[in-house]
Protein backbone atom coordinates (compact mmCIF):
# COMPACT_ATOMS: atom_id res chain seq x y z
CA UNK A 1 0.00 0.00 0.00
CA UNK A 2 1.20 3.47 -0.86
CA UNK A 3 1.99 5.84 2.00
CA UNK A 4 -0.31 8.39 0.35
CA UNK A 5 -3.34 7.18 -1.58
CA UNK A 6 -5.29 9.24 -4.08
CA UNK A 7 -8.79 8.30 -5.16
CA UNK A 8 -11.00 10.05 -7.66
CA UNK A 9 -14.65 10.19 -6.74
CA UNK A 10 -16.29 11.84 -9.73
CA UNK A 11 -15.15 15.45 -9.67
CA UNK A 12 -13.49 15.08 -6.27
CA UNK A 13 -10.02 13.90 -5.23
CA UNK A 14 -9.53 12.20 -1.86
CA UNK A 15 -5.92 12.26 -0.62
CA UNK A 16 -5.26 9.92 2.29
CA UNK A 17 -2.10 9.81 4.39
CA UNK A 18 -1.79 6.06 4.78
CA UNK A 19 0.50 5.27 7.67
CA UNK A 20 -1.92 4.51 10.49
CA UNK A 21 0.52 2.32 12.39
CA UNK A 22 2.48 5.47 13.30
CA UNK A 23 -0.49 7.86 13.50
CA UNK A 24 0.01 9.00 9.89
CA UNK A 25 3.15 10.94 10.72
CA UNK A 26 4.93 12.49 7.76
CA UNK A 27 8.39 11.59 6.47
CA UNK A 28 10.13 12.84 3.36
CA UNK A 29 8.48 10.23 1.15
CA UNK A 30 4.99 11.17 2.31
CA UNK A 31 5.77 14.86 1.88
CA UNK A 32 6.80 14.22 -1.71
CA UNK A 33 3.66 12.20 -2.39
CA UNK A 34 1.44 14.92 -0.91
CA UNK A 35 3.11 17.44 -3.19
CA UNK A 36 2.47 15.20 -6.20
CA UNK A 37 -1.19 14.77 -5.23
CA UNK A 38 -1.73 18.51 -4.92
CA UNK A 39 0.00 19.12 -8.25
CA UNK A 40 -2.32 16.54 -9.84
CA UNK A 41 -5.30 18.37 -8.36
CA UNK A 42 -4.00 21.73 -9.52
CA UNK A 43 -3.50 20.65 -13.13
CA UNK A 44 -6.63 18.53 -13.65
CA UNK A 45 -9.51 20.80 -14.61
CA UNK A 46 -11.97 17.93 -14.17
CA UNK A 47 -11.27 17.85 -10.42
CA UNK A 48 -13.27 20.46 -8.51
CA UNK A 49 -12.35 19.85 -4.85
CA UNK A 50 -9.71 18.05 -2.80
CA UNK A 51 -10.30 16.30 0.52
CA UNK A 52 -7.30 15.56 2.75
CA UNK A 53 -7.67 12.87 5.39
CA UNK A 54 -5.78 10.19 7.32
CA UNK A 55 -6.16 6.41 7.24
CA UNK A 56 -7.76 4.66 10.19
CA UNK A 57 -9.79 6.12 13.02
CA UNK A 58 -6.98 7.07 15.42
CA UNK A 59 -5.21 9.87 13.57
CA UNK A 60 -5.61 12.43 10.85
CA UNK A 61 -1.90 13.20 11.12
CA UNK A 62 0.34 13.44 14.17
CA UNK A 63 2.89 15.66 12.45
CA UNK A 64 6.46 14.99 11.40
CA UNK A 65 8.07 11.58 11.80
CA UNK A 66 10.48 12.64 14.54
CA UNK A 67 12.52 9.47 14.06
CA UNK A 68 13.17 10.47 10.47
CA UNK A 69 12.76 14.24 10.61
CA UNK A 70 15.85 14.89 8.52
CA UNK A 71 14.16 13.41 5.47
CA UNK A 72 11.60 16.24 5.46
CA UNK A 73 14.15 19.00 4.95
CA UNK A 74 16.34 16.86 2.69
CA UNK A 75 13.50 16.32 0.21
CA UNK A 76 14.04 18.15 -3.08
CA UNK A 77 11.75 21.18 -3.16
CA UNK A 78 11.16 21.25 0.59
CA UNK A 79 12.25 24.89 0.88
CA UNK A 80 9.67 25.98 -1.68
CA UNK A 81 6.68 23.74 -0.87
CA UNK A 82 7.28 23.23 2.87
CA UNK A 83 8.72 20.38 4.96
CA UNK A 84 5.45 18.40 4.97
CA UNK A 85 5.11 18.79 1.22
CA UNK A 86 2.36 21.35 0.63
CA UNK A 87 2.28 23.87 3.46
CA UNK A 88 3.93 26.70 1.51
CA UNK A 89 1.75 26.24 -1.56
CA UNK A 90 -0.62 29.20 -1.67
CA UNK A 91 -1.76 29.34 -5.28
CA UNK A 92 -4.30 26.52 -5.43
CA UNK A 93 -7.42 27.93 -7.10
CA UNK A 94 -9.92 25.27 -6.01
CA UNK A 95 -11.53 24.26 -2.68
CA UNK A 96 -9.75 22.02 -0.20
CA UNK A 97 -11.30 20.32 2.84
CA UNK A 98 -9.73 18.48 5.77
CA UNK A 99 -11.64 15.43 7.07
CA UNK A 100 -10.20 14.91 10.53
CA UNK A 101 -10.34 11.75 12.62
CA UNK A 102 -8.39 11.31 15.84
CA UNK A 103 -5.11 13.09 16.46
CA UNK A 104 -4.49 16.32 14.55
CA UNK A 105 -1.23 17.44 16.06
CA UNK A 106 1.80 19.53 15.19
CA UNK A 107 2.48 19.39 11.46
CA UNK A 108 -0.82 17.57 11.07
CA UNK A 109 -2.60 20.60 12.49
CA UNK A 110 -0.66 22.75 10.03
CA UNK A 111 -1.80 20.52 7.16
CA UNK A 112 -5.40 20.81 8.35
CA UNK A 113 -5.03 24.59 8.47
CA UNK A 114 -3.73 24.55 4.89
CA UNK A 115 -7.21 23.44 3.84
CA UNK A 116 -10.06 25.92 3.37
CA UNK A 117 -12.13 24.41 6.18
CA UNK A 118 -12.24 21.41 8.46
CA UNK A 119 -14.77 18.68 9.30
CA UNK A 120 -13.95 16.79 12.51
CA UNK A 121 -15.08 13.46 13.87
CA UNK A 122 -16.18 13.45 17.50
CA UNK A 123 -12.93 11.69 18.51
CA UNK A 124 -10.68 14.35 16.96
CA UNK A 125 -8.19 16.26 19.09
CA UNK A 126 -5.93 19.17 18.23
CA UNK A 127 -2.74 20.70 19.55
CA UNK A 128 0.88 21.71 19.27
CA UNK A 129 2.45 19.07 21.55
CA UNK A 130 5.84 19.46 19.85
CA UNK A 131 6.17 22.49 22.12
CA UNK A 132 7.63 20.01 24.63
CA UNK A 133 10.57 19.23 22.36
CA UNK A 134 11.31 22.75 21.12
CA UNK A 135 10.23 21.93 17.56
CA UNK A 136 8.98 25.03 15.71
CA UNK A 137 5.89 25.47 13.59
CA UNK A 138 7.46 25.86 10.14
CA UNK A 139 4.62 24.51 8.02
CA UNK A 140 2.46 27.61 8.25
CA UNK A 141 1.10 27.21 11.76
CA UNK A 142 2.14 30.65 13.00
CA UNK A 143 0.54 32.26 9.97
CA UNK A 144 -2.61 30.29 9.22
CA UNK A 145 -3.74 29.43 12.75
CA UNK A 146 -4.16 33.08 13.89
CA UNK A 147 -6.06 33.83 10.69
CA UNK A 148 -8.45 30.98 11.46
CA UNK A 149 -9.01 31.20 15.23
CA UNK A 150 -7.74 34.67 16.14
CA UNK A 151 -4.54 35.74 17.84
CA UNK A 152 -5.42 34.82 21.43
CA UNK A 153 -6.67 31.34 20.62
CA UNK A 154 -3.70 30.69 18.36
CA UNK A 155 -1.16 31.76 20.96
CA UNK A 156 -3.01 29.73 23.59
CA UNK A 157 -2.44 26.60 21.52
CA UNK A 158 1.04 27.52 20.31
CA UNK A 159 2.52 28.62 23.63
CA UNK A 160 0.97 26.11 26.03
CA UNK A 161 1.11 22.93 23.93
CA UNK A 162 -2.35 22.14 25.26
CA UNK A 163 -4.49 19.54 23.49
CA UNK A 164 -8.15 20.39 22.89
CA UNK A 165 -11.07 18.19 21.85
CA UNK A 166 -13.42 18.57 18.90
CA UNK A 167 -15.97 20.56 20.91
CA UNK A 168 -13.46 23.23 21.90
CA UNK A 169 -12.04 23.28 18.39
CA UNK A 170 -15.56 23.98 17.13
CA UNK A 171 -16.10 26.75 19.68
CA UNK A 172 -12.96 28.64 18.63
CA UNK A 173 -13.65 28.19 14.92
CA UNK A 174 -10.82 25.77 14.19
CA UNK A 175 -13.31 23.27 12.78
CA UNK A 176 -16.59 24.11 11.11
CA UNK A 177 -18.54 20.91 11.83
CA UNK A 178 -18.27 18.07 14.33
CA UNK A 179 -19.80 14.79 13.22
CA UNK A 180 -20.04 11.29 14.72
CA UNK A 181 -16.89 9.20 14.75
CA UNK A 182 -16.14 7.81 11.31
CA UNK A 183 -18.30 10.36 9.51
CA UNK A 184 -15.79 13.14 8.79
CA UNK A 185 -14.85 11.86 5.35
CA UNK A 186 -18.43 11.03 4.26
CA UNK A 187 -19.58 14.49 5.37
CA UNK A 188 -16.67 16.19 3.61
CA UNK A 189 -17.52 14.26 0.46
CA UNK A 190 -21.17 15.25 0.79
CA UNK A 191 -20.32 18.94 1.04
CA UNK A 192 -17.74 18.76 -1.74
CA UNK A 193 -20.22 17.07 -4.04
CA UNK A 194 -22.73 19.86 -3.47
CA UNK A 195 -20.01 22.45 -4.06
CA UNK A 196 -19.10 20.76 -7.34
CA UNK A 197 -22.63 21.42 -8.67
CA UNK A 198 -22.28 25.20 -8.30
CA UNK A 199 -21.02 27.47 -11.10
CA UNK A 200 -17.29 27.07 -10.61
CA UNK A 201 -16.07 30.42 -11.95
CA UNK A 202 -18.01 32.30 -9.30
CA UNK A 203 -17.00 29.89 -6.53
CA UNK A 204 -13.31 30.04 -7.45
CA UNK A 205 -13.42 33.83 -7.70
CA UNK A 206 -15.13 34.21 -4.32
CA UNK A 207 -12.48 31.93 -2.83
CA UNK A 208 -9.68 33.91 -4.48
CA UNK A 209 -11.12 37.25 -3.39
CA UNK A 210 -11.40 36.03 0.19
CA UNK A 211 -7.82 34.80 0.39
CA UNK A 212 -6.22 37.71 -1.45
CA UNK A 213 -8.33 40.35 0.25
CA UNK A 214 -7.85 39.26 3.85
CA UNK A 215 -4.62 41.23 4.25
CA UNK A 216 -5.89 44.36 2.47
CA UNK A 217 -7.64 47.44 3.78
CA UNK A 218 -11.41 47.40 3.27
CA UNK A 219 -11.36 49.88 0.34
CA UNK A 220 -8.57 47.93 -1.39
CA UNK A 221 -10.36 44.68 -0.73
CA UNK A 222 -13.58 45.98 -2.24
CA UNK A 223 -11.72 47.08 -5.36
CA UNK A 224 -10.08 43.68 -5.63
CA UNK A 225 -13.44 41.95 -5.25
CA UNK A 226 -14.99 44.02 -8.03
CA UNK A 227 -12.05 43.34 -10.35
CA UNK A 228 -11.95 39.61 -9.75
CA UNK A 229 -15.68 39.18 -10.26
CA UNK A 230 -15.79 40.74 -13.70
CA UNK A 231 -15.37 37.22 -15.07
CA UNK A 232 -18.07 35.88 -12.74
CA UNK A 233 -20.64 38.34 -14.06
CA UNK A 234 -19.75 37.36 -17.65
CA UNK A 235 -20.01 33.62 -16.99
CA UNK A 236 -22.63 31.92 -19.19
CA UNK A 237 -23.22 29.35 -16.44
CA UNK A 238 -24.53 32.10 -14.15
CA UNK A 239 -26.97 33.16 -16.85
CA UNK A 240 -28.21 29.59 -17.17
CA UNK A 241 -28.57 29.21 -13.40
CA UNK A 242 -30.61 32.40 -13.23
CA UNK A 243 -32.85 31.06 -15.99
CA UNK A 244 -33.37 27.90 -13.92
CA UNK A 245 -34.16 30.01 -10.86
CA UNK A 246 -36.77 32.00 -12.78
CA UNK A 247 -38.31 28.73 -13.95
CA UNK A 248 -38.67 27.53 -10.36
CA UNK A 249 -35.78 25.06 -10.46
CA UNK A 250 -34.28 25.67 -7.04
CA UNK A 251 -32.26 22.79 -5.56
CA UNK A 252 -32.07 22.60 -1.75
CA UNK A 253 -29.02 24.09 -0.09
CA UNK A 254 -26.89 22.18 2.42
CA UNK A 255 -27.41 22.61 6.13
CA UNK A 256 -24.96 21.94 8.97
CA UNK A 257 -25.58 18.90 11.14
CA UNK A 258 -27.32 19.42 14.46
CA UNK A 259 -24.57 20.26 16.93
CA UNK A 260 -24.84 19.46 20.60
Outline of the structure:
The protein has 260 residues and is an alpha/beta fold. It contains 12 helices and 10 strands. It folds into 2 domains: 4-195, Alpha-Beta Complex (2-enoyl-CoA Hydratase, Chain A, domain 1); 200-246.
Please render the helix and strand layout as text.
Elements lengths: L3 E6 L2 E6 L10 H16 L5 E6 L4 E3 L8 H5 L3 H4 L14 E5 L2 E3 L1 H8 L2 E5 L3 E3 L13 H9 L1 H10 L2 E3 H6 L5 E3 L4 H12 L4 H14 L4 H11 L1 H4 L2 H11 L14
Parallel strand pairs: 2-3, 3-5, 4-6, 5-7, 6-8, 7-10
Antiparallel strand pairs: 1-2, 8-9
Helix pairs in contact: 4-5, 5-6, 9-10
Q: Can you walk me through this structure?
A:
With 260 residues, this protein is of the alpha/beta class. The chain has two domains: 192 residues, Alpha-Beta Complex (2-enoyl-CoA Hydratase, Chain A, domain 1), CATH 3.90.226.10; 47 residues. It contains twelve helices and ten strands. The strands form two sheets. The chain has a six-stranded mixed beta sheet, sandwiched between helices. Strands 4-6-8-9 form a four-stranded mixed beta sheet. Strand 1 and strand 2 form a beta hairpin. Helix 4 crosses helix 5, helix 5 packs across helix 6 and helix 9 packs antiparallel against helix 10. The longest helix has 16 residues.
Amino acid sequence: MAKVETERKGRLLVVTINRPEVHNCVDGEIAGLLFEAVELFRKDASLYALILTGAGDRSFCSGADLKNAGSLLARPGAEESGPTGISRITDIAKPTIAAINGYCFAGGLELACWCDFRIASRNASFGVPERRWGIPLIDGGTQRLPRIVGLGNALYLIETGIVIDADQAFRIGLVQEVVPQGQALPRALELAEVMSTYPQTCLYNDRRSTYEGISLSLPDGLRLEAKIHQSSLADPEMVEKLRQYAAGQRPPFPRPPTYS
